[in-house]
Amino acid sequence: DIAPYVGGESKVEGREKPIRLASNENPLGASPKAVEAYKALAAELNRYPDGGALALRQAIAKRYDLALDRLVCGAGSDELISLLVRAYAGPGDEVLYSRHGFLMYGISARTVGATPVTAPERNLTADLEALLAAVTERTRLVFLANPNNPTGSYLGYEAVRSFAERLPADVLLVIDAAYAEYVEASDYDDGLSLVERLSNVVVLRTFSKIHGLAALRLGWAYGPVEVIDVLNRVRGPFNVSAAALAAGVAAINDPTHVERSRAHNARIHAWFVRQLQRLNLRAEPSVGNFVLVRFGDAPGAAAFLKSQGVLVRAVGAYGLPDHLRITLGTDEEMQAVVDALERYRQ
Ligand code: PLP
């Protein structure tokens, strides 16, 4: 009786191009260099990909100053979440995360017969003391999305460091930093430096968000050599496609596109929050490329927006029945959302 993960909606009947703000995708698209690299792959579709993802791991290692043998790539960070749970948890074990944490943690736990356990949050933010208090001798993995989806909240470096140091050494802490590149807060850290210091920390990153390569399915994990070795044993031999590898290398080597995307997000975020205020709507604080907005009737608001061709994400499955998560799109898309919300308010 495992409820499947249901992704954000992408279709509206009768509309060829709905406004898709339900999956936290980069509205500016991928780096033109990544698109070129993807196209160039067409000439070699008969060839298997490099199962060791060497060129991509080298590019990532160089970009972030990381050790090559602590890196493994996956078909999206989703695959890496599943592999970690499959490798480290089973029946009778517990997988811990916070109340409004990313849904895949619990789904992955159930698929291996492990028990998902959630700890309460404070102000829509993971409560690290509550998480520590929920650790038992059965806990195998703790997932911490930082920033978190769907809340958009984050935890500062010192808090995460102290939490990681206080966790039992035999519990693996997985810091899921899917939205790291968007964060502007000076006390934020993606956790990569903790991997060097502690033997039980793994960091996950993705190409699906700021790099705009969600369609290709590409993510990476950085962790202790022993954990990476285990992931290399449980993953498929060619788990990442050649197209994803090629586009990924080009994307990592195009920091200009990342910066352009970050700057766009920051600007449109500030603008959208002001527009919401004008409409007497409240956006929760977010450091990601999406905002949670509270509605009196969230399902009704989602249905109205859909009728206007705007797809947003209902987050009842995350325990947030009164909110909708709205991805920050292009200027034109966000203007269309504001116009639709104005009609909704009337
Ligand atoms: N982790 C978090 C926190 C996410 O929000 C998402 C996607 O929405 C993922 C992981 C999975 O991303 P992907 O499998 O596309 O890398």
UniProtKB/TrEMBL annotation:
Keywords: Amino-acid biosynthesis, Aminotransferase, Histidine biosynthesis, Pyridoxal phosphate, Transferase. It is an enzyme of class 2 (transferase). One of its GO terms (biological process) is L-histidine biosynthetic process. It catalyses: L-histidinol phosphate + 2-oxoglutarate = 3-(imidazol-4-yl)-2-oxopropyl phosphate + L-glutamate. Pathway: Amino-acid biosynthesis; L-histidine biosynthesis; L-histidine from 5-phospho-alpha-D-ribose 1-diphosphate: step 7/9. It holds the Pfam family Aminotran_1_2. InterPro entries: Aminotransferase_I/II_large, HisP_aminotrans, HistidinolP_aminotransfase, PyrdxlP-dep_Trfase, PyrdxlP-dep_Trfase_major, PyrdxlP-dep_Trfase_small. The keyword Transferase applies. Signal peptide: none annotated. Its cofactor is pyridoxal 5'-phosphate. One of its GO terms (molecular function) is histidinol-phosphate transaminase activity. The keyword Transport does not apply. The modification N6-(pyridoxal phosphate)lysine is found at residue 209. Transmembrane segments: none annotated. Its EC number is 2.6.1.9. Residues 17-341 form the Aminotransferase class I/classII large domain. Homodimer. Belongs to the class-II pyridoxal-phosphate-dependent aminotransferase family. Histidinol-phosphate aminotransferase subfamily. This is Histidinol-phosphate aminotransferase.
